[in-house]
Amino acid sequence: MGKIFLPKTAKLIISMITSDRYLFKLYEDVLIKRFGEVDIESNVQSFNFTDYYGEEFGKNLMQKLFSFCTLIRQDELAEIKIITNSIENNIENENIKNNMAYNKRKINLDPGYITLNKYILASTKNGPSRIYLNQE
């Protein structure tokens, strides 16, 4: 029988999806204030794998991934997802507020983590690779 143990810390990553390239930097600044410095960021890439966000965000979606210097406990992921959902909908940065038409969110933020053994991305959408994270 295996022993129960606390897992090692993990590398926090956050995926951003939007149709407005300008928002990547604005939201990066908000996330840095909350989670600390970014150590690695991906190039902007086309996100055309699904039409899920099309009605909300428009066409020509782009994705960018950010990795943060500070390591997290793996069990913090549910709390971090709640925080990123709040950031999507309740922007404190005036530059972002001024660019939000009709108070609709303009970006999707999905946090996750990387360890030596796995890549986990938190999402509120149901699916075969989704796991319950102890929050309603």
TrEMBL record:
InterPro entries xref list: DUF4416
Cross-referenced Pfam families: DUF4416
UniProt name for this protein: Uncharacterized protein
Lineage: unclassified sequences, metagenomes, ecological metagenomes
